């Protein structure tokens, strides 16, 4: 509903017609809420490079990690709504309103443009861990309950933190989260065994699994990933409700002219339909998954309802 109001309002923005027709006349800044090198950064750059070629101006990725993505979201929400500042969103956009207070932005302060990709989340453990499957990890975690094991979390309201808590709740495990600023800082501690496990986007860990530095015990996808077909799903291992897929989309400040949003959405649609782009996304452990502005808005409403229920469950555990 709020998305529809935003888009309707953007049509009425005075004096926006000429600017929208001329856009883009200079580089566009695309803010990413996670550190450079993370899944969001790697997957997004595939699309940004093609947007630059298609629209004739640089689309510059700018990383603004921290505060569980709220720094990036606030920055873009306060930006001028002229199409020159965009935000890469993922499930945190639907989650944060239910798990954090004191935010200085709201979902309604950002207008959805398009969803462009999906990626799996994997539960991974150090290669030196004394177990080979999820059941082994569960048994080991129960035997180490005092003090409990620790796991690496990319942020309080991150998709991966919520996915980890979904699994831990269903398994009845007490494993303490250690907070990091995104996924990349977790990797060294995970490889060295300083944390017992992490749930991370497949783009961050597939190469490490293939090189033998990490073990992948489960995917949170509905089916096994084609890039890691030997790793079973959570559902296959007795946790059918632990299905969590990460998505990537674009948002603009509320009030951005509808014509700019439409042109962006149409450009993304064309880009992710190309076989070469789909191959590049696959190489980054993602898959093209386009939704236009209207469908993306509806998808976000479904996401918000799901995460509202999960957040309420986690609050009940306190």
TrEMBL record:
Signal sequence bounds: 1-19
Gene3D superfamilies given in the database record: Bordetella uptake gene, domain 1 (3.40.190.150), Periplasmic binding protein-like II (3.40.190.10)
Family annotation (InterPro entries): BUG, Bug_dom1
Superkingdom, taxonomy of origin: Bacteria
Alphabetized UniProt keyword annotations: Signal
Family: Belongs to the UPF0065 (bug) family.
Protein name in UniProt: Tripartite tricarboxylate transporter substrate binding protein
Species whose genome carries this gene: Achromobacter pestifer
